[in-house]
Amino acid sequence: MARAFPPSPFETTVAEALLDPVALGDGDDDYGGTEGDDLVYGAGGDDRLGGLEGADELYGGAGEDTLTGGLGDDRLYGGADRDTIYGGEGDDWMHLGDGDWQTISAGTGDDVMFGGSGIDRLIGFDGNDRAVGRGGQDSLSGGRGDDLLRGGGGNDALYGDEGRDALFGGGGDDYLYGGAGRDRMVAGRGDDRIYEDGGRDRIEAGGGDDRVYAGAGRDVIEGGRGDDLLVGGAGPDRFVHGRNWGEDVIEDFSRAEGDRLDLRALDVRWRDLTIAETAEGAWRATLDGNAVEVFAEDALRKADFLF
Fold first, then answer.
1. Residue 75 burial (CB count, 10 A)
2. pLDDT tens track for 127-179
3. How many beta carbons lie within 10 A of that of residue 196, not counting itself?
4. Among 138, 151, 231, 294, fewest CB within 10 Å belongs to which?
């Protein structure tokens, strides 16, 4: 049986069976899909296109369109204007076009979402979703599964939510928010902000001057190539530094909680470090032009480091 949307002022096309691709006109079309594998091309109007039971392929076209996946594994493509895409129950692949203020809302499957060049929102749901931003200032959220979120060239905001997520900043100045699971968060090339919400997470600063705020838990926090601010939060944290880490500051180093400075990626020993107190009351460890300033209870000791 064919599926139809509720009555609307749009032109309506509902097919019983599909043998050839359906190319809609330039009006505001309403297409409800079939029980087979649909291939539908919207045109210049503000269209509403829906899949049903098959593996459908829907193209929005130039208007402000709404595309909805059905029960199958669908491919949904927005067009050049302000589009909204909803995933269905299958494992869907969804791609926005070049307009601003576009939205993808994933369904219950393991969905893949790609933003366009504008300002987009990519929203995960129950599955293990993948969301990738592009050129605009995008917002990506993972939902309840184990998700992969990757920022694009704009200043993006990435929200891990529940599950064991992986968040990667892009070329802009991004915000990365880990959720309740055991997450990995990696800053990109910009000056990023990373916030961790408890758990046993791995956080990696990137090429910019990043700020990392970890929560309660046993975290691994890696300084990047920029001048980073690192806050471990409660719990035994490990602050990792490799070559060319810049000038970092650790605000809450706690020997009592089991925090450590990990320099095992370098061929150094305790005698290679220069330790001095700063005017602000921090302890500055210097090595080969790189430095880390540590706010601690008292002077840094050999036991505070892992070599």
1. 18
2. 999 999 998 999 999 999 999 999 999 999 999 998 999 999 999 999 999 98
3. 27
4. 231
Give, for 229, the enclosing helix (H) or strand (E).
Answer: strand 229-231
8 Å CB contact between 120 and 104 = yes
CA-to-CA distance for 42 and 25, rounded, in angstroms? 7
Question: Cα–Cα distances in Å, from 31 out to 10, 168, 259?
Answer: 10, 37, 59
Interatomic CA distance for residues 218 and 75, integer angstroms: 40
The SS3 call for residue 104 is strand
User: How many beta carbons lie within 10 A of that of residue 201, not counting itself?
Assistant: 26
The backbone torsions φ and ψ at residue 249, rounded to the nearest 5 degrees and listed phi first, read: -125, 130
Residue 120 tokens read as 């987009």
Burial class (CB in 10 A: 0-12, 13-18, 19+), 80: middle
Contact 287, 264 (CB under 8 A): no
- Domain ranges in the chain are 214-306
The encoded tokens of residue 181 equal 């699971």
Token look-up 């505001």 returns 28
Residue 190, token pair as written in the block: 């910009």
Can you list the alpha helix ranges (DSSP code H) found in the chain? none
Q: Which two tokens stand for residue 80?
A: 């050049």
Structure tokens at 280: 């602000």
pLDDT of residue 6: 37
Q: How confident is the model at residue 106 (pLDDT cuts 50, 70, 90)?
A: very high
